[in-house]
Predict the structure.
Amino acid sequence: MHEEKTKRLAAIKKTAENGGGPERVEAQHSKGKLTARERIALLLDEGTFVELDKYVMHKSDDPSIQKFFGDGSVTGFGTIAGRQVFVFSYDFTVLGGSLGEMTGKKIAKAMDHALKVGCPIIGIIDSGGARIQEGVASLDAYGDIFFRNTMASGVIPQITASIGPCAGGAVYSPAMTDFVIMVENIGQMFVTGPEVVKEVLSQEVSFEELGGARAHATKSGVAHFVAKNEYECFDKIKKLVSFLPQNNAEEPAIIETSDDPNRIDTNLVNILPENPYQQYDMKDIIKSIVDNGDFFEIHELFAENIIVGFARMAGRTVGIVANQPMYLAGALDINSSNKTARFIRFCDSFNIPIVTLVDTPGYLPGTDQEHNGIIRHGSKLLFAYCEATVPKITCIIGKAYGGAYIAMGSKNLRADINYAWPTAEIAVLGPEAAITIIHRRDLKSSADAAAKKKQLAKEYRDKFANPYIAAEKGTIDLVIDPAETRPMIIRALEALANKKESRPWKKHGNINL
């Protein structure tokens, strides 16, 4: 009797693990896509996955909806490098991975568990969207997921892998998570598909152009990472998780490093060109100062005029924010402000110190920026720095002019330690712009205005655009030898490790969204 029951369990288990059946599994593979369970197996440590709600079926009375075990998603828990995570993966082989009432309950349950346990939740998206036949029950399920995304925000890390379609209201759950990874030519996200766009706007657009990985990584900023294939996607998730704590009550683990915390780099200053208006790659400086040159960039293809990402310094996770003179001369604009503000707020939520490297001529001018709200969006960067209570260390490398000087982790926004290289130029305006205003009459009356302007600009740069006036006023704590940037930042991180800073009680701030 017991043996029969055990055999029945084995048969049911096998049926459940076949998803929508061999034909649909083969169809999934023929598109170059893995199944939900294959994806989870790639992501988690071998043999650690425990599936929950494996035998759930939909409750609809509609005879047109075939019943399958699992009902369109695979959920459960396991470990990544020994660390507990919860995971859900839409199963496209079952009813196109559509979300019905029970699918939503399964996902909501996994999210609830992750919140109670205090560990990351990882969602793998490959779904046809709301299950039309289930009507409002399907829509309610999305609402339940959105609510949990909001409750989990800033409490546990939320990561989304987009490895298939994700359309309509379904796209808002990934957008509410902390990081989105899209696989090229497979992951697609859009509120309305190409057919609707064609019908309403008479525009011809492909799925990939409208909502593919590249579009969201370069234009909309929805995607933080682009992966070439599913294997690279899960490798990126594993590396991302390695930098993060389990939840907001923990700090990221300190990893033993072979890179000497006191290592200096005498060549560092040579990365900076003699001409302050010449381009250079800020990533060369970042890679020089972090452990083993290992920098994990976030949003690499979006708003490239600013760089954000994770690294370690003396084994401690830090969030790096740095202007990139290779693009728009490192000027701040709408997209870079949004990108950086959200990254800073993530770091602050999860106890990750922020290291800021500054070389920016200011906010990007022009009617396009003004009319699209650079004032509103630019204020987010100020808000995020002011709001953050984690250790904040800023080093001014080159230019730091006007409002951009203030916005990039200045002392007045409550950065803890502010360093500057001797090459730093801190001023209200760049020398050329400043002398054009200050010496307008002299330049008009000068026989050789160009030569006069050059001379006056040099005098202004020597007299005003240097770090020593700010150092006299204490808004720069120390002007440092560029070669010692790594050890000086590490010493500051160690000194601030036990930092506690309170803010006035509030329900939440009202960041200018």
